[in-house]
Amino acid sequence: MTSPRQHEAAEPLADLPDYGDVCAAASRIAPHATRTPVQQSSALDARCHAKLFFKCENFQRTGAFKFRGACNAVFTLDDATAARGVATHSSGNHAAALALAARLRGISCHVAMPSNAAAVKQAAVAGYGAAVRLCEPTLEAREATLSDIVEEVGATVVHPYDDRQVIAGQGTTAKELIEQAGRLDIVLTPIGGGGLTAGSALAVKALLPEARMVAVEPAGADDAFRSFRAGKRLPSTAPRTIADGLLTSVGERNFALMQRLVDDVVTVSEDAIVAAMRLLWERMKLVVEPSAAVPLAALLEGGLSTPAVTAKPRIGIVLSGGNVDLDRLPW
Known about the structure:
Layout lengths: L18 H11 L8 E2 L2 H7 L2 E6 L9 H11 L2 H5 L2 E4 L3 H13 L3 E6 L4 H9 L3 E5 L3 H15 L2 E2 L6 H18 L4 E5 L4 H13 L4 E7 L4 H8 L21 H10 L2 E5 L1 H15 L5 H12 L12 E6 L12
Helix pairs in contact: 1-3, 1-8, 3-5, 3-8, 5-6, 8-9, 9-11, 12-13
Protein backbone atom coordinates (compact mmCIF):
# COMPACT_ATOMS: atom_id res chain seq x y z
CA MET A 1 0.00 0.00 0.00
CA THR A 2 1.39 3.39 -0.93
CA SER A 3 1.50 6.30 1.49
CA PRO A 4 -0.84 9.29 0.95
CA ARG A 5 0.80 12.01 -1.12
CA GLN A 6 0.53 15.04 1.14
CA HIS A 7 -0.20 18.44 -0.37
CA GLU A 8 3.23 20.12 -0.58
CA ALA A 9 4.60 17.37 1.66
CA ALA A 10 8.02 17.56 0.00
CA GLU A 11 8.72 21.08 1.29
CA PRO A 12 11.13 21.33 4.21
CA LEU A 13 9.56 22.22 7.53
CA ALA A 14 11.60 25.43 7.58
CA ASP A 15 9.68 26.62 4.49
CA LEU A 16 6.75 28.01 6.44
CA PRO A 17 4.07 30.39 5.12
CA ASP A 18 4.50 34.11 5.70
CA TYR A 19 2.18 37.09 5.60
CA GLY A 20 2.65 37.34 1.84
CA ASP A 21 1.06 33.90 1.57
CA VAL A 22 -1.88 35.12 3.65
CA CYS A 23 -2.37 38.10 1.31
CA ALA A 24 -2.17 35.82 -1.73
CA ALA A 25 -4.72 33.51 -0.11
CA ALA A 26 -7.06 36.43 0.55
CA SER A 27 -7.08 37.32 -3.16
CA ARG A 28 -7.38 33.68 -4.21
CA ILE A 29 -10.40 32.84 -2.04
CA ALA A 30 -12.18 36.20 -2.34
CA PRO A 31 -14.57 35.02 -5.09
CA HIS A 32 -15.62 32.03 -2.98
CA ALA A 33 -15.35 32.69 0.77
CA THR A 34 -17.70 34.89 2.79
CA ARG A 35 -16.27 38.06 4.32
CA THR A 36 -17.88 37.35 7.66
CA PRO A 37 -19.14 40.17 9.89
CA VAL A 38 -17.58 41.48 13.08
CA GLN A 39 -20.17 41.92 15.82
CA GLN A 40 -20.09 43.62 19.21
CA SER A 41 -22.07 43.47 22.46
CA SER A 42 -22.18 46.22 25.05
CA ALA A 43 -23.34 43.66 27.63
CA LEU A 44 -20.31 41.44 27.05
CA ASP A 45 -18.01 44.47 26.95
CA ALA A 46 -19.21 45.40 30.43
CA ARG A 47 -18.93 41.81 31.64
CA CYS A 48 -15.32 41.48 30.43
CA HIS A 49 -14.17 45.08 31.10
CA ALA A 50 -12.99 45.34 27.50
CA LYS A 51 -14.16 46.30 24.03
CA LEU A 52 -14.76 43.03 22.22
CA PHE A 53 -14.87 42.40 18.48
CA PHE A 54 -16.28 39.00 17.49
CA LYS A 55 -15.25 37.66 14.07
CA CYS A 56 -18.24 35.49 13.18
CA GLU A 57 -16.89 32.53 11.26
CA ASN A 58 -20.06 30.69 12.23
CA PHE A 59 -21.46 32.55 9.20
CA GLN A 60 -18.71 31.25 6.90
CA ARG A 61 -19.56 28.79 4.12
CA THR A 62 -19.90 25.27 5.57
CA GLY A 63 -20.32 26.97 8.96
CA ALA A 64 -16.68 27.31 9.98
CA PHE A 65 -13.35 29.01 9.23
CA LYS A 66 -12.10 25.72 7.77
CA PHE A 67 -13.45 26.67 4.35
CA ARG A 68 -10.81 29.38 4.02
CA GLY A 69 -7.85 27.03 4.25
CA ALA A 70 -9.43 24.25 2.21
CA CYS A 71 -10.42 26.69 -0.53
CA ASN A 72 -6.92 28.17 -0.70
CA ALA A 73 -5.31 24.72 -0.85
CA VAL A 74 -7.64 23.51 -3.61
CA PHE A 75 -7.28 26.60 -5.78
CA THR A 76 -3.47 26.61 -5.36
CA LEU A 77 -3.15 23.22 -7.08
CA ASP A 78 -2.01 23.27 -10.70
CA ASP A 79 -4.55 21.99 -13.24
CA ALA A 80 -2.90 18.60 -13.77
CA THR A 81 -2.75 17.88 -10.04
CA ALA A 82 -6.25 19.20 -9.42
CA ALA A 83 -7.64 16.97 -12.15
CA ARG A 84 -6.77 13.93 -10.02
CA GLY A 85 -8.93 15.28 -7.20
CA VAL A 86 -8.29 15.82 -3.50
CA ALA A 87 -8.72 13.60 -0.46
CA THR A 88 -8.63 13.72 3.31
CA HIS A 89 -9.81 11.91 6.40
CA SER A 90 -12.10 13.86 8.68
CA SER A 91 -15.24 13.55 10.74
CA GLY A 92 -16.25 17.18 10.69
CA ASN A 93 -15.65 20.70 9.44
CA HIS A 94 -12.57 20.06 7.27
CA ALA A 95 -14.34 17.34 5.30
CA ALA A 96 -17.24 19.64 4.46
CA ALA A 97 -14.91 22.53 3.65
CA LEU A 98 -12.74 20.47 1.30
CA ALA A 99 -15.79 18.95 -0.39
CA LEU A 100 -17.27 22.37 -1.16
CA ALA A 101 -13.94 23.81 -2.32
CA ALA A 102 -13.47 20.85 -4.67
CA ARG A 103 -16.98 21.26 -6.04
CA LEU A 104 -16.31 24.92 -6.75
CA ARG A 105 -13.12 23.98 -8.63
CA GLY A 106 -14.98 21.25 -10.49
CA ILE A 107 -12.83 18.38 -9.23
CA SER A 108 -13.48 15.25 -7.20
CA CYS A 109 -13.17 14.98 -3.44
CA HIS A 110 -12.79 11.78 -1.46
CA VAL A 111 -13.23 11.62 2.30
CA ALA A 112 -12.51 8.79 4.71
CA MET A 113 -14.97 9.27 7.57
CA PRO A 114 -15.23 7.25 10.78
CA SER A 115 -18.41 5.23 11.00
CA ASN A 116 -19.37 6.93 14.24
CA ALA A 117 -19.37 10.41 12.68
CA ALA A 118 -22.71 12.13 13.15
CA ALA A 119 -25.16 11.20 10.42
CA VAL A 120 -25.88 14.87 9.77
CA LYS A 121 -22.17 15.47 9.11
CA GLN A 122 -21.91 12.49 6.80
CA ALA A 123 -24.91 13.77 4.89
CA ALA A 124 -23.49 17.29 4.70
CA VAL A 125 -20.16 16.11 3.28
CA ALA A 126 -21.91 13.91 0.72
CA GLY A 127 -24.26 16.79 -0.06
CA TYR A 128 -21.31 18.96 -1.05
CA GLY A 129 -20.39 16.30 -3.59
CA ALA A 130 -17.68 14.27 -1.87
CA ALA A 131 -17.34 10.52 -2.20
CA VAL A 132 -17.54 9.34 1.42
CA ARG A 133 -15.95 6.05 2.46
CA LEU A 134 -16.74 4.95 6.01
CA CYS A 135 -14.14 3.25 8.16
CA GLU A 136 -13.59 2.16 11.74
CA PRO A 137 -13.36 5.09 14.18
CA THR A 138 -9.62 4.84 14.83
CA LEU A 139 -6.78 6.97 13.48
CA GLU A 140 -5.11 3.88 12.05
CA ALA A 141 -8.26 2.92 10.14
CA ARG A 142 -8.77 6.45 8.86
CA GLU A 143 -5.20 6.69 7.58
CA ALA A 144 -5.34 3.23 6.02
CA THR A 145 -8.62 4.04 4.26
CA LEU A 146 -7.18 7.31 3.00
CA SER A 147 -4.12 5.48 1.67
CA ASP A 148 -6.40 3.07 -0.19
CA ILE A 149 -8.26 6.00 -1.75
CA VAL A 150 -5.04 7.69 -2.86
CA GLU A 151 -3.72 4.45 -4.34
CA GLU A 152 -6.94 3.92 -6.28
CA VAL A 153 -7.61 7.40 -7.63
CA GLY A 154 -4.33 9.31 -7.30
CA ALA A 155 -5.87 12.19 -5.37
CA THR A 156 -3.77 14.72 -3.47
CA VAL A 157 -4.23 14.72 0.29
CA VAL A 158 -5.01 18.11 1.82
CA HIS A 159 -4.15 18.00 5.51
CA PRO A 160 -6.67 19.82 7.72
CA TYR A 161 -4.10 22.02 9.47
CA ASP A 162 -0.41 21.07 8.98
CA ASP A 163 -0.25 22.42 5.43
CA ARG A 164 1.29 25.66 4.17
CA GLN A 165 -1.64 26.69 2.01
CA VAL A 166 -4.24 25.72 4.60
CA ILE A 167 -2.45 27.81 7.25
CA ALA A 168 -2.27 30.78 4.88
CA GLY A 169 -5.96 30.49 4.11
CA GLN A 170 -6.89 30.40 7.78
CA GLY A 171 -4.80 33.53 8.29
CA THR A 172 -7.25 35.53 6.19
CA THR A 173 -9.63 35.34 9.18
CA ALA A 174 -7.47 37.62 11.34
CA LYS A 175 -6.51 39.78 8.35
CA GLU A 176 -10.19 40.58 7.79
CA LEU A 177 -10.83 41.05 11.50
CA ILE A 178 -8.13 43.72 11.73
CA GLU A 179 -9.33 45.43 8.56
CA GLN A 180 -12.84 45.56 10.02
CA ALA A 181 -12.12 46.36 13.67
CA GLY A 182 -8.99 48.49 13.41
CA ARG A 183 -6.42 48.56 16.20
CA LEU A 184 -6.57 45.63 18.61
CA ASP A 185 -4.58 45.03 21.78
CA ILE A 186 -5.19 41.26 21.86
CA VAL A 187 -6.40 38.65 19.36
CA LEU A 188 -7.78 35.38 20.71
CA THR A 189 -8.25 32.16 18.76
CA PRO A 190 -9.19 28.64 19.84
CA ILE A 191 -6.50 26.05 19.15
CA GLY A 192 -6.64 22.40 18.21
CA GLY A 193 -4.39 21.44 15.29
CA GLY A 194 -3.24 25.05 15.13
CA GLY A 195 -4.05 26.13 11.57
CA LEU A 196 -6.24 29.04 12.67
CA THR A 197 -3.80 30.18 15.36
CA ALA A 198 -0.70 29.94 13.16
CA GLY A 199 -2.32 31.70 10.21
CA SER A 200 -3.88 34.37 12.40
CA ALA A 201 -0.54 35.01 14.11
CA LEU A 202 1.04 35.74 10.72
CA ALA A 203 -1.58 38.41 10.06
CA VAL A 204 -1.59 39.88 13.56
CA LYS A 205 2.17 40.31 13.83
CA ALA A 206 2.39 41.79 10.33
CA LEU A 207 -0.44 44.28 10.77
CA LEU A 208 -0.36 44.93 14.53
CA PRO A 209 3.13 44.04 15.76
CA GLU A 210 2.43 45.37 19.26
CA ALA A 211 -0.74 43.31 19.72
CA ARG A 212 -0.72 40.14 21.83
CA MET A 213 -1.59 36.94 20.01
CA VAL A 214 -3.09 34.39 22.41
CA ALA A 215 -4.35 30.87 21.76
CA VAL A 216 -6.94 29.27 24.04
CA GLU A 217 -7.71 25.59 24.54
CA PRO A 218 -9.67 23.39 26.95
CA ALA A 219 -7.85 22.23 30.07
CA GLY A 220 -8.86 18.69 29.14
CA ALA A 221 -7.02 18.92 25.80
CA ASP A 222 -4.03 21.05 26.75
CA ASP A 223 -1.26 19.81 24.45
CA ALA A 224 -0.64 23.29 22.96
CA PHE A 225 -0.41 24.78 26.46
CA ARG A 226 2.09 22.16 27.59
CA SER A 227 4.03 22.21 24.32
CA PHE A 228 4.31 26.00 24.29
CA ARG A 229 5.83 26.01 27.75
CA ALA A 230 8.11 23.04 27.13
CA GLY A 231 9.39 24.38 23.82
CA LYS A 232 8.62 21.10 22.04
CA ARG A 233 5.51 19.30 20.82
CA LEU A 234 3.87 17.14 23.48
CA PRO A 235 0.85 15.53 21.79
CA SER A 236 -2.25 14.65 23.77
CA THR A 237 -2.85 11.00 24.56
CA ALA A 238 -6.45 10.96 25.80
CA PRO A 239 -7.97 14.44 25.45
CA ARG A 240 -11.45 14.94 26.89
CA THR A 241 -13.54 18.05 26.28
CA ILE A 242 -16.92 19.15 25.04
CA ALA A 243 -15.05 21.21 22.43
CA ASP A 244 -14.67 18.30 20.03
CA GLY A 245 -13.13 20.50 17.33
CA LEU A 246 -10.07 21.01 19.57
CA LEU A 247 -9.18 17.39 20.33
CA THR A 248 -6.41 17.30 17.72
CA SER A 249 -2.82 17.88 18.83
CA VAL A 250 -1.00 20.85 17.32
CA GLY A 251 0.81 20.20 14.03
CA GLU A 252 4.53 20.63 13.29
CA ARG A 253 4.33 23.67 11.02
CA ASN A 254 1.71 25.20 13.26
CA PHE A 255 3.83 24.78 16.37
CA ALA A 256 6.90 26.23 14.65
CA LEU A 257 4.92 29.38 13.81
CA MET A 258 3.45 29.49 17.32
CA GLN A 259 6.91 29.51 18.84
CA ARG A 260 7.84 32.53 16.73
CA LEU A 261 4.64 34.54 16.81
CA VAL A 262 2.28 33.57 19.64
CA ASP A 263 2.59 35.41 22.95
CA ASP A 264 0.73 32.98 25.18
CA VAL A 265 -1.45 29.88 25.36
CA VAL A 266 -4.07 29.62 28.12
CA THR A 267 -6.56 26.95 29.12
CA VAL A 268 -10.18 27.08 30.26
CA SER A 269 -12.54 24.80 32.15
CA GLU A 270 -15.47 22.90 30.69
CA ASP A 271 -17.89 24.95 32.79
CA ALA A 272 -16.49 28.18 31.36
CA ILE A 273 -16.84 26.88 27.79
CA VAL A 274 -20.51 26.05 28.36
CA ALA A 275 -21.13 29.40 30.04
CA ALA A 276 -19.51 31.28 27.15
CA MET A 277 -21.45 29.31 24.56
CA ARG A 278 -24.72 30.05 26.33
CA LEU A 279 -23.87 33.71 26.85
CA LEU A 280 -23.21 34.20 23.14
CA TRP A 281 -26.59 32.65 22.40
CA GLU A 282 -28.50 34.67 25.00
CA ARG A 283 -26.80 38.05 24.60
CA MET A 284 -25.84 38.10 20.93
CA LYS A 285 -28.21 35.52 19.44
CA LEU A 286 -25.18 33.69 18.01
CA VAL A 287 -25.26 29.92 17.75
CA VAL A 288 -21.68 28.68 18.03
CA GLU A 289 -20.13 25.29 18.62
CA PRO A 290 -18.26 24.69 21.90
CA SER A 291 -14.85 25.13 20.25
CA ALA A 292 -15.81 28.63 19.13
CA ALA A 293 -16.78 29.67 22.66
CA VAL A 294 -13.36 28.81 24.12
CA PRO A 295 -11.72 32.25 23.65
CA LEU A 296 -14.59 34.08 25.36
CA ALA A 297 -14.40 31.51 28.16
CA ALA A 298 -10.85 32.71 28.89
CA LEU A 299 -12.14 36.23 29.48
CA LEU A 300 -15.06 35.04 31.60
CA GLU A 301 -12.78 32.89 33.73
CA GLY A 302 -10.21 35.64 34.23
CA GLY A 303 -7.25 33.54 33.19
CA LEU A 304 -6.06 35.98 30.54
CA SER A 305 -3.64 38.77 31.39
CA THR A 306 -4.58 41.96 29.55
CA PRO A 307 -2.11 44.68 28.57
CA ALA A 308 -1.81 47.75 30.73
CA VAL A 309 -1.89 50.08 27.71
CA THR A 310 -5.52 50.94 28.35
CA ALA A 311 -8.14 50.47 31.04
CA LYS A 312 -10.42 48.92 28.44
CA PRO A 313 -8.38 46.85 25.96
CA ARG A 314 -9.66 46.20 22.45
CA ILE A 315 -9.86 42.44 22.01
CA GLY A 316 -10.55 40.52 18.80
CA ILE A 317 -12.16 37.11 19.26
CA VAL A 318 -12.49 34.55 16.48
CA LEU A 319 -15.74 32.58 16.75
CA SER A 320 -14.44 29.65 14.76
CA GLY A 321 -17.68 27.93 13.77
CA GLY A 322 -21.34 27.28 14.34
CA ASN A 323 -21.80 23.60 13.55
CA VAL A 324 -23.39 22.70 16.86
CA ASP A 325 -25.58 19.64 17.34
CA LEU A 326 -28.82 21.18 18.60
CA ASP A 327 -30.00 17.80 19.86
CA ARG A 328 -27.00 17.59 22.20
CA LEU A 329 -26.83 21.02 23.79
CA PRO A 330 -24.75 21.08 27.00
CA TRP A 331 -27.43 22.61 29.19
